[in-house]
Each structure stands twice: as structure tokens, then as C-alpha cells.
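thought: user wants a sequence for this fold. calling inverse folding tool.
action: design(structure=
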């Protein structure tokens, strides 16, 4: 009986030690993480601000140091980019049409989620304002998701994805309005030319009749 009690007591102590060991392993990284989290959050916010400034000023040299070597950017029209120069060329092409300026604002939905001490996920809303050369402006509501990875002691953008409502595209709407205006102007011009031609033909006919 005494031997069984000793065995039971030994197993109980093993169980307690195992539980304490698991708790210690769980809590140590959590504590270290909590101590560094505010510093990491400030660095992540800085990365987001630099990305936003680069887009709004079209100066992509500012964001290049904050991009992971294997970064991916997916735009609202399903274009995928892995190089800064390619994305810069794509972005600048937007201004070769009726768009004069683009300004974007970002909002984070909830506090970012850390998948590990070196990987974080942020997401939220974005409002992109398009300023057109004809003086009009329109807003496009978007959603964004960003995956950030700590690389060489700096929080970098590993993946950035934008999405929007395809039925609410201010660029296409502006183009449709412009095309509609051109169609109306062309139709009105044709009508006026036809009316003038009929008027001149009527006068010419009247003059010939009077001369006879």
C-alpha cells in the first residue's frame, strides 16, 4: 500500500511539473512578445505610412526599403507585381488617361494580428479619390489586406492586396459620361449640319424658282 502511495505521489508530481513546464514555455515568449509589441506596432505603422505616402506622392523610392525581397502587390484589377519598377510603371500609366491625381486614405479595422513574433496581418478600409482632368472627382471604396514580415530588424510588406466593388468604378463611370457627352455632341452637331444644309438647299431652290 505504501509503495502504491509513493508511486501515485510520484506520478502526481510528474504531472504537476509537466503542467508547470508547459506554462513556462508558453508564457516566456508571450512575455517577451508583449514587451516588444508596442515597438513592433510603431514600426508597422511607420511602414504603412511610408507606403501610403509613396502612393500619394508617386515617389516609390520611399517605400522600396520597406518591401520584403519577395513582396507581392495585387491591385483591384488583378494585376500582380513583384518589382517596384513594374508597379511604378503601372501606377503612372493611370495618369495617361483622364485621371489627373489619385489620393488614398487607409483605416485599420481592428488591431493587427500577430501570427508569430515576425509576421503580422493588418486589414481595413481604403478610400481612393480620383481627380479628373475635367474638374470632376469621385471616391472608390476599397478593402485592403497586408501581410508584414520582420526582415533584417525592419517590418517589411510581404504581401499587399486591394479589392473593390466592380459595380462602383468611378474611372469607368467617368469614361462612360465622357463617351456619352461625345455621342451627344456628335449627334447634335450632325443635326445642326443637317438643318443648315436643308436651310441652304431651301433658299437655293427658292432663288431658282424666282429667277424662272
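)
observation: tool returned 212 residues.
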Amino acid at each position: 500500500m505504501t509503495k502504491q502511495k509513493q508511486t501515485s505521489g510520484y506520478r502526481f508530481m510528474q504531472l504537476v511539473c509537466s503542467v508547470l513546464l508547459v506554462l513556462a514555455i508558453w508564457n516566456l515568449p508571450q512575455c517577451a512578445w508583449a514587451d516588444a509589441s508596442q515597438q513592433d506596432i510603431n514600426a508597422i505603422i511607420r511602414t504603412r505610412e511610408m507606403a501610403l505616402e509613396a502612393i500619394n506622392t508617386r515617389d516609390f523610392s520611399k517605400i522600396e526599403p520597406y518591401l520584403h525581397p519577395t513582396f507581392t502587390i495585387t491591385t483591384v484589377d488583378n494585376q500582380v507585381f513583384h518589382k517596384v519598377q513594374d508597379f511604378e510603371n503601372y501606377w503612372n500609366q493611370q495618369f495617361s488617361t483622364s485621371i489627373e491625381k489619385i489620393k488614398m486614405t487607409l483605416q485599420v479595422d481592428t488591431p493587427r494580428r500577430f501570427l508569430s513574433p515576425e509576421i503580422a496581418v493588418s486589414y481595413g478600409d481604403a478610400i481612393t479619390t480620383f481627380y479628373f482632368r475635367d474638374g470632376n472627382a469621385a471616391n472608390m471604396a476599397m478593402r485592403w489586406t497586408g501581410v508584414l514580415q520582420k526582415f533584417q530588424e525592419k517590418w517589411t510588406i510581404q504581401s499587399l492586396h486591394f479589392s473593390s466593388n466592380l459595380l462602383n468604378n468611378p474611372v469607368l463611370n467617368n469614361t462612360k459620361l465622357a463617351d456619352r457627352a461625345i455621342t451627344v455632341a456628335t449627334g447634335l452637331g450632325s443635326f445642326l449640319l443637317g438643318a443648315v444644309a436643308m436651310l441652304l438647299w431651301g433658299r437655293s431652290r427658292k432663288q431658282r424658282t424666282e429667277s424662272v
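thought: summarizing for user.
answer: Here is the designed sequence. The helical segments are 2-57, 84-93, 170-211.
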